[in-house]
Amino acid sequence: MSYTAWILLTAALVGLSCGMIGVLLILRRMAMMADAISHTVLLGIVVAFLVTRELSGYHMLIGAVIAGLLTSVLIQWLQSRGVQGEASIGVVFTTLFAVGVILIATQVGNAHLDVKHALMGEITFVPWTTVRLPWIGDIPEATLILSAVLLIVVVAIIAFYKEWKITSFDPALAASLGIPVIVMHYAFMSLLSITTVAAFDAVGAIMVVAMLITPAAAAYLWTDRLSVMFGLSGGFGVGSAVAGYYIASWLDTSISGSMAFATGVVFLLSFLMSPKHGLISRYVTVPARKKATSER
Amino acid sequence: MQGLAVTDLSASYRKNNVLEDVSFELPQGSLTGIVGPNGAGKSTLLKTMLELHPKLSGTVTFAGAPLSKMRRKIGYVPQRGSVDWDFPTDALDVVLMGLYGAVGWLKRPKAGHRQQALQALAQMGMADYADRQISQLSGGQQQRVFLARALVQDAELYFMDEPLAGVDAATEQAIMTTLRELKGRGKSVMVVHHDLQTVEDYFDHVLLLNRRVMNYGETAEIFTKDNVYRTYGAGLRWRKEVPS
Amino acid sequence: MTLLLSPNAWWVLLSMLILGVASGMIGTLAYWKRQSLMSDALSHAALPGVVIAFAITGVKALPILILGAALSALIGAFLVQWVVSSSRIKEDTAMGIVLSVFFGLGIMLLTIVNRTGGGNVSGLDGFIFGQAASMVRSDVYTMGILGLLVIAVVYAAFKEWKLYLFDPQFAKGIGLPSGLMNSLYTGVLVLVIVIGIQAVGVILMSALLIIPAVSARYWTHSFKWMLIGSAFIGGGAGVAGTLISTMGKGWPTGPFIVVSSSAVFLVSLLFGARKGLVVTAIQQRMQKRSPRALPAEAEKSMVKEGGLQ
Questions:
Q1: B202-219 pLDDT, tens per residue?
Q2: C300 vs B51: CB contact, 8 Å cut-off?
């Protein structure tokens, strides 16, 4: 496969896995948790590097999942001690992220891991680090990890589809039916962490938030069916990722920034024009809406 | 069949004691209203019995077994405001959620389950709205969907958190008809209720609650002016004077 | 400690002190408005404005960059409000979108400007993590004056802020113009963010608003003392972080300021007079009431307390 094709494939994998996870993320009202985790994952990666002195994908995945779960546990714990929800997110992630940046600046030096790379990702480097697989041949390591993560995400979503649905919609009922709401919560946090770290190489800490939240939010404006929302969100994610690549090569600028920008364009178009929940539909279908609200 | 037995149940919320030594026994086939002022711990009582809220002490048994072992036999209707009605799903799907415990892990609901859910919707007069997005339902219709979801669980014991709050008169009647019918089939229903004027019409048992059990028993005996005053403290006007 | 030797140093430290005090105070307002993370969204949203302002004027003058940042952050604030009020998108989602998309746009533009603008733009990168040491005398004046302005606005209308945050309905009822208060609140929030981003950076600016306020909450029940405590902690963290960051070559200021305030938070969490862990433990030991039920059950309360929503 050509250099460009690998990059496009990697970008599409990022768009698809982030788009799927994003649906659960916004329905569970955890958009800002993604912001928090995407930042603290940096600390996990840096610590994994300092411990092993290796930039291997697997160590970093483990470091990232630990950092992600730690973030989630700390936030939960502060909230249970009476700190406001938003404020506890803010305290935890800025602190852990700052520690990560300081460690990079003071301990890591110039060893392949610099702050800018971690923040913005460098998808153009992805095809250079390859691993050899039987049958398939050389494949970029980041692409391989992303494929594996996508597989895990898709299997987890399909296998526990109804459990995700009920714990997102009505956790109290789910708990009363004996579904382990807390286990599902931490399972979701783990999925979010591995998705974030897998996408990290390609898009970096902050733009991964755009890939997670924005396509799902756009899809939320188009449909009232959960299954359709998953499909649309994945599609929007892939579309934005690919469009972002071409915008970036046209303007000769940051690919990850352009991908984030493209998700914003998709959202804006949906916000304005979606026939179901878009702005224009509010004016076009006023009588029908009035009827629905007057029944209340 | 032995019913619900609660012994010395206590719970706190952010260090304040909201339930203290709550004890009562509910006979099977009864329709009980939980009545008390705001902050009396009515919702917390339901949640603590279901172990959705941690208890400090006490035991809750149903048919002689701990409640946590009897989840299949218990249906719970949370407050309507506790969920996000913009969730991308339709009325039938919400009713199906009541069957998720019975369907089991990794399995999908089958055609039979859908049939059950449709029947429950029909029983609540909502058959025509099965594929309606839930945010497009009126408040009363949303409450009927929640009731249908409880019906489909086919439980022996139901906990309902203010099912009659903010619904239209027709829905209120439909819900009460359903509750009476449940009682007629030997089920027990506990309902958090706010409207003092309808207590005597609706419930055969009343639990007057203000952090502790003020009174519990048959409505005719318990629901007296003195007892209600004692539960609510000063500032309550009796009966028809109460603005609805 | 090279900074201490330079003539600029004391001015830089003074302006960081003012910035810390101002953001500590505004952070307290944001805490009670329950909008802690809005500051995060707005500081990220400021980035494209900084770059565009530079690209248009071609000079790195702080007042112009601040103007660009403020416009861009205000657009972000407006978009969040517009999307939430006219669609089913919830506030946290809208904030996440604005935060990440604006930041992406900022990075796009920054890359283009870096490529075409030559060496004179290198300082723009400092807006991501903050470079207090790169501030010149005129930057210090700009920051100091605007910071003092923010402090004055909070100080002058102290009782109005209190009422507005505690009971907005009642405030409206007794004739406090809520529209004006809302605009004023957004105004000072954006102002303190944009004057801080050169020194602290867009990514961590929100920490300077959030952490001092949360820490101060552990010491007092009074709004007034929380405001003062938060200002004190913010000012201290600003100065301490700036000093530490001058000890290493190229160390960014922002992360050190954040870690300094986090240290204060940790101390507050442990020893705070109100709900501090140690104090609570002592109280519990003295009361000795049902210690058994707490640890295992604490987790379950998550379902109820909305942690999972």
A1: 999 999 999 899 999 999
A2: yes
